[in-house]
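Sequence in, structure out. Go.
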Amino acid sequence: MLQVSTAFSRHAQRYGTRRLRAEGHAVERYALRSWLRRCGWRALSTRSQRPRTTVADPAAVVAENLLLG
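Output:
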């Protein structure tokens, strides 16, 4: 588990159980998950939680609804 903690720190706490196992650590995924929880460690997200897809323009004119015509 010392190798896992070193790898977790080396990757700036961004690697979760799947990426740590893919790196070659021979431990079951759920055993690794419970061990990380006992240590109080949690992998940090590398991207924002909600994508910002649209920036609303407050000066935009709303189009007329032609279906209700």
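Check: DSSP finds three helices and no strands in the chain. The helical segments are 2-10, 17-22, 29-39.
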